[in-house]
Amino acid sequence: MLKFLADVNIEKQIVEFLRKSGFDILWIPDYNPLMSDEELLDLVANEDRILITNDKDFGYFIFLQKKPVNGLILFRIKGQSIEKKLANLEELLNYYKDKISKYFIVITEKKIRFTPLR
User: Strand 50-53 relative to strand 112-116: parallel, antiparallel, unpaired?
Assistant: First the structure.
């Protein structure tokens, strides 16, 4: 079963959707809202979770600093439409569940892009 960690910038509706769908998810505002990005990545790696974020800076840590992660989902949706995010996340979980772990995933308004990790 996939386990997730939602960054502080992820909307509560996304966290609630994943919880209602039966996923194990930690939300940083409930856990430790003052956690640094590096501490967050350590937690993700230690607990074998997939990070969900709106923060594109995590690409730097993963690809340039080679920080280990089990997977990452990055939302890049103009206007941060929660309806669009939920629809695209649902599509990802329904059709690409086997490509979530070990991938850096970018979700835009029109597509889902997968980059293998490691």
Answer: unpaired
| Residue 91 CA neighbour count, 13 Å, CB half | 14
C-alpha 37/C-alpha 58 separation (Å) is: 8
H-run or E-run covering 28: helix 28-31
C-alpha 41/C-alpha 28 separation (Å) is: 12
- Model's pTM, two decimal places? 0.93
Rounded to a whole number of angstroms, the distance between the first and last alpha carbons of the chain is: 21
- Residue 52's Cβ-side half-sphere holds a number of Cα atoms within 13 Å equal to 26
How many whole angstroms from its chain centre is CA 96? 14
For the chain, domain boundaries: 3-116
8-59: per-residue pLDDT in tens? Answer: 999 999 999 999 999 999 999 998 989 998 899 999 999 999 999 999 888 8
